[in-house]
Amino acid sequence: MKDAELRSPVSFIANVARLPQKGLPLVVVADERQREALAAEHGLLSVESYRAELLVASWRRNGVRLTGRVEADITQVCIVTLEPVTAHIDEPVEALFLPEQSKLGREGFEGGGEIILDADGPDSPETFSGDTIDVGALAEQFFGLAIDPYPRKPGASLDVAGDDQPEESEFHKKLRSLLGKS
Fold first, then answer.
1. Is residue 125's pLDDT more than 50?
2. Who is most buried in 39, 78, 106, 173, counting CB within 10 A?
3. Dihedral sign (CA 132, 133, 137, 139)
């Protein structure tokens, strides 16, 4: 029961034991109940649509590479006006996984394992156990990272002082008179 409570609203378990040579294409589309759960989980007013198109493919000898995109239409609260703000999320998804029992998975990068990674590519590989990976939960993580933490309505600003000019200090008055400016 504990695992079910921690499971992502868009959880989708992919069996990675025998992946097709060209990879396993998957599409995760959230229904109304899942979108409501996503909104609650990420502090949004609503999630109008959510779709993740993913490709799960073999990587290296026994690793897994996950690529794709997550797209969503969301409504948040403007941090200035507190009015609803709509936003579109279109975020690339890219991750690498290694089985725990693999040498690199057991020893990690500090244990003498060596792997070359692209600086612009995905993060270092994560480990997984068994024959499955929750690709839906991973796509939700990329969705969460793409949400603007400080949404603002177009034209809304955080001006505190308004149009009133602050009263000129005695120092500024003297400085202006010394410079001969009025």
1. yes
2. 39
3. negative
Distance between CA 45 and CA 39 in Å, rounded? 6
Segment 97-120, tens digit of pLDDT = 998 877 654 455 444 555 555 666
Task: Output the CA torsion sign for 157, 162, 167, 173.
Answer: positive
Token pair belonging to 172: 């500024």
Dist CA 18 CA 58 (whole Å): 9
Q: Whose CA is closest to 54, among 29, 72, 21?
A: 29
Whole-number Å distance between alpha carbons of 55 and 23: 6
> How confident is the model at residue 6, as a pLDDT?
65
Neighbours of 93 (CB within 10 A): 20
CA dihedral 27, 90, 133, 12 (to 10 degrees): -40
d(CA 88, CA 72): 6
Q: For the residues 116-137, what does the mean pLDDT come to?
A: 77
Run of H or E including 40: helix 32-42
Residue pair 147/74 in contact (Cβ under 8 Å)? The answer is yes
The mean-pLDDT minimum among 9-13, 64-68, 119-123 falls in 119-123
Euclidean distance between CA atoms 32 and 44, whole angstroms: 14
